[in-house]
Amino acid sequence: MPRPIDPARRRARRLQIIDAALTAFARHGYAGATTAEICRIAGIGSGTFFHHFPTKDSVVAAILEQGTRETREFFGGRAPGTPPRQVLFDFVGHAAADLADPRAAGFITVVGGLTARPEIAAALRDDENTLRACLREVVAAAQDRDEVRTDLTADRLALWIVLLVDGFAGRVAAGGFDVTAETPLLVDQVALLLDGSRPGPSQ
Questions:
Q1: Listed residue (188, 184, 92, 186) closest to 138, CA to CA
Q2: CATH number, position 156
Q3: 140-165 tens-digit pLDDT
Q4: What is the pLDDT of residues 78-99, one digit of tens each?
Q5: Distance of CA 95 to the CA centre of its chain
Q6: 201 in a domain, yes or no?
Q7: Which residue ranges carry the DNA-binding annotation (predicted)?
Q8: Any residues with CB less than 8 A from the CB of 162 and at least 6 apart, and which?
Q9: Cα–Cα distance between 147 and 108 in angstroms, integer?
Q10: Number of domains in the chain
Q11: Is residue 60 within 8 Å of 25, Cβ to Cβ?
Q12: The pLDDT of residue 178
């Protein structure tokens, strides 16, 4: 009789492989991060790897999908009563903290070279759509409470928050960028976006 599968153990093993793959991709790039190297970092055999992930593309997609799940958990887990505007800034800080991971730059570079691959393109689309939907909901709530500008739609503001964070991520990938030192300026830019334009000096 076959042994029952323990879902928690299966999830833990998948996360172990995902974490090892993230390290391998960051260190060696896509081509250099062989499945053997991922297995070595994870401390598993190749049979275990291929039981969970049939290809390297599938593990790249799984890393992206894990990020999407964490986005849902972040917005779904906010404390009741937290002002929507605060949730937006908490998200920006959360995103910047993720980009402070020393592996972030290498992985962003890897993904940038794989966007034409269907499985990875689909994971990227789902990630962006999820993030925009979560942000749109919070921005709309902030607009209802008059916490942010209302001259732009919630969807447009959500899009621009994504653009600011993505641009920040792009600089991280380029290297030589101090995430901790530059995060306050990212927060400032999001604040300017949410507050709207102010009258300039008289001409």
A1: 92
A2: 1.10.357.10
A3: 999 999 999 999 999 999 999 999 99
A4: 888 899 999 999 999 999 999 9
A5: 7
A6: no
A7: 34-53
A8: 128, 131, 132, 135
A9: 33
A10: 2
A11: yes
A12: 93
